[in-house]
Give the backbone structure.
Amino acid sequence: MRSVETEQRGILRYFYYFVAVAGIATTFLVVSVYQRYAAEAVQDRVANFHLHTLTQVREVSAALAAAELARTRLKVEGQGGWATEGDRLEVKGQLSAAVHSIDRSVASIGRLRHGDADEKYRNAVRRLRVKFDGVRQAFEDEGLRADYEDQLAAFRLSIYQLDRLHSIDVERAVQGLGRASGKRTRQLVSLASVVLVLTVFVLWRLFVLLRFRLRRHSATRKALFERERELMQAQKMEALGTLVGGVAHDFNNLLTAVLGNVELLRAETPEGESPAVELTEIRKAAERAAGLTRQLLVFGRKDQAETGVVDLKLLFLDMEVLLRRLIRADIELTLSAEQDLWLVEADRVQMEQVLINLSVNASDAMPQGGDLTIDVSNVRVGGEAPALATIPAGSYVRTRVRDTGLGMSPDVQSRAFEPFFTTKESGKGTGLGLSTVHGIVTRNNGYILVESASGHGTIFDVYLPRSDGAAIKTGERAAEAPRGTETILLAEDDDQVRALVSAGLRSAGYTVIDTADAEEALEVCKRLESPVDLLMSDVVMPRMRGDELAQRVLEFFPGIGVVFISGYFEEEVLERVRELGSPLVAKPFKMHHLLRVVRQELDARREFGRSAHGM
Amino acid sequence: MKRVILSMLLCASVACSPTGRSVDSERTRLVRIGVLPDQAKEVLAQRYAPLVEYLAATAEVEVQLRLPESYEALLEAFEERSIELGWFGALTFLRAERESGAEPLVSRDIDLSFTTAFVTSSGATGRSIGDFVGRRFSFGPRLSTSGHLMPRYLLYQLGIDPETFFSEVRYSQAHDQTVLWAANNEVDLGAVNSTVHQAMLLDGRLEAGKVRVVGQTPPYTNYTWAVQPHLGEEVRSRLLDAFLSLDRTMASHRAVLDPVGAGGFVPVSVADYDELRIAANLLDEPGR
C-alpha cells in the first residue's frame, strides 16, 4: 500500500510540472508581446518614415523629369525661335514650377524625422540638397552652364541613392516582419507542443493516481462490507446464543426434574425389579438430552465446563452411531483407538462437540464422497518433529481426524480457526465450527494442528495432555449419597425442580423449608426462631436474584452455608456467585451429586465455625 | 526537479530570444579589402589604390588592399575572415553569401543594369546566336557572372544547350581574353562582359570594327562590394556613406571613380540578386 508521504511527493511533483508549464507559457507570452511591440514599431517606421520619404523622392524624380523636359524645350525651341513670347514664358513657367516642386519636396524630405534616424539618411538628404542646389542654378541659367550634365547626373544619383536606401530598408523590414511572424508561429507551435506533452503527461499521472485511489476505495469498501457482514453474523450468533441460553436454562430445569424424580424412584426400586430397567432407560435418555443441552450451551458459549478424567476411546466409540448419522452415506467412516489409551482431563460433552465438528467439517470437505478416518492414540512429544515444534514435550492423547477431501490452500489453512471464516456458501456455514473446536481444545489445555494441501485432503490432530486420574465410566452407578439432619432453606421458582430437590433433601434426612422465590424465603427467615443451617437457592429468579437473596439471608443467619443451583451460565452471574465463594451446581444435576455438595458445604461451615469459636 | 524546471525555462527563453547582429567587430578599425582578380595584379593595384586611399580618409579606418590569386582564393579569404570588404562578381557573391553570409553593401551605378555581349569577329557570317550552331564557343572565366552564368542562362532561355549546340565550349581566364579569341578567330563566338568590351575599345586594346556584337543579355545586377556579416554597424555605416559620397562633379572623386569604371555608387540588397539566384539554382552552376 502506497504511503501518504509518497502520495504527497507525487502530488508535489505534479505541482512542479504545472509550474514548469506555466513558466514556459509566461516566458513565451512575454517574449511574444515584446516581439509584437517591436513589430509594431517597425511597421510604424516603415509607414511614417520610409514610405513617406519614398513618396517625396518619387515626386522629386517626377518634377526633375518635368524640369528637364521644359529645359530641353527652352534649349531646342529657343534655338529655333519661339512662336510667341507667351510660349517661351509658359515653358519657362513650367520649368520654374518643376524646380519649385523639387525644392518643396527636397525641403519636405529634409524635415522628415523619425526617431533617431540613421546618419546614412541624414547624409543622403544632405547630399540631395547639395546636388539640388547645383542643378537649381543650372536650371535658372537655362542650361548655359558647362557642367550642367555632370551636376544633373550627380543629382539623379543622389535621388537614386536615397530611393534605394529607403527601398532596401522597407524590403528588409518586410522580410524581418515575415521572419518574426514565422518565428512567432514556430514558437507558438513549440509552446503548444510542450504544453500539450506536459499536460498529457500530468493528466496521465493524475489518471494513474485516481485509478489507484479508486482501487483503494473499492478495496476499503469491500473490506468494510466484509466487516459489516461479519458484524451482522456476530450479532445474529449473539442473538441465537442468547436464545439458546434461555431455552437451555428452562430445558435444564425440566431435565433436572426428570432426572431427579427418576433417581428418587430408582433409589426406592430394588435392583433388577420392575420398573428399575425402564427407569434406567429414562435416566439414559434424560442424560442424553442433558448432553444436548450442554452442546447448545457450548455453541452459545454459555456452558459451564465440567472437567473430569475422560477415556476418549470409550467416549468416541460410544459416538460412532451418532457420527454415522451425521455424515453422508458416501463417506466411509473408520474409527480406531489404541488399546491402552491414556486418560485425559477434559469436559466430556465438549470433547463430543470437538469430534462432531471435525467430522462434519470433513464430511463437507468431501462433496464427492471419500474416507473419514478417526484414530485415537498415545503419543510422546519430544520436540524433534517439526510439526510438533509448537507443542511442549510430554505425553498426549492424539485424536487424528483425516479426510480425503478438497484440502485447503495455505491461505485458507492459516485462517481456518478464525471465527466466522468459512469457505462454504453463504448460509451453509457459520464459520464457528473450527473456531469452537480450537476454543474447546485450548480451554482443555490441548493443542490442535492442521496439515493440508489443495486436493490432498486434510488432517486435524488434537493433542490433549495425559491424565493420571481414573475415569468416570459412562453409566457407572453413583456412590451412596451422603446424608444429614440439618435444616435447609430452599428457594427455587420452578415448582418441579423445587419439589424434586426438596424430596431428595428430605429423603437424605434433611429438614427442608420450601419457598418459591426470594421474597418468600426472606419472610420465612423473619419468622424463624432458630437459624437454618444452609440456604440452597436458584441463581436466576424473578424480582431478586439468588446471590442477592444469599446476602440478605446471611444478614439474618451469619455463617450458614450457601449452595446455588442454576441452569443459566451468564458470565455476569457466575462472577457474582464466585465473589460469594459458594458452590454452584449446574442443572441438570444428579441428586447424589447435589447431596455431596450440600454435605461438603455444611461440613465446611461447621469446620469454619469451630475454628472461629476456637479462636 | 528544480533543475529540470530551470532547464525548461532556459530552453524556452533561448528559443524566444531575439537574434542580433554581432557587434564583436565594433572595435574594428582595420578594413582589409579583397578584389576580384579579373585583371593582372599590377592593373588591379593601380585601379584600386585611389579608392583605398579615399576610403581610409573618408571612413576614418585603416584600409589594406589584398589581391587574391583567383576567384577561389578571394572566396577563401572571405570565408577565413582575412578580408572585411570584398569586390565580388554576382556569382562569386552568391557563393560568398551562401558559404560565409556575405552581405551586399554597394554597387556601381552601372552594375544594376549589367549586360553580357556575344561577340564574333567582324568577318564571321553569323547574324545571331542561333547561326553559330556547330561552331566554337567560349565563355569567360568559369566563376564569372557576366562571362559564364548569365550568358549560359540566356542560352538556356533560348533552348540552347551549349555543350551540344556548339562544336567546342571553352572557358577563358579573363574577359579581355575572350574578346581577343573572338577577334582572332580562335573561337567563333564569345560571351563577354559588355563593360570590358567597351573599355577595351576605349583604351585601345581592341581595334574598332575588329569584333561585332550578335546578341546581348537583358540587364542584371552584377558586381558588388560586400561586407562580412559580423562587421560592426558603425564601420559598415561609415563605409556605406563613403561610397555614396563619391561625386563625379568633384575632380578628386573622379580620380577614384574612373579607375573602377563607376559614375557613382548605390546601395544594394540581397533582393537585387534574386534573378541571379534563380539562374544559378536553375543551372546548378558552381555559384550555387
Remarks:
- The longest strand of chain A covers residues 370-381.
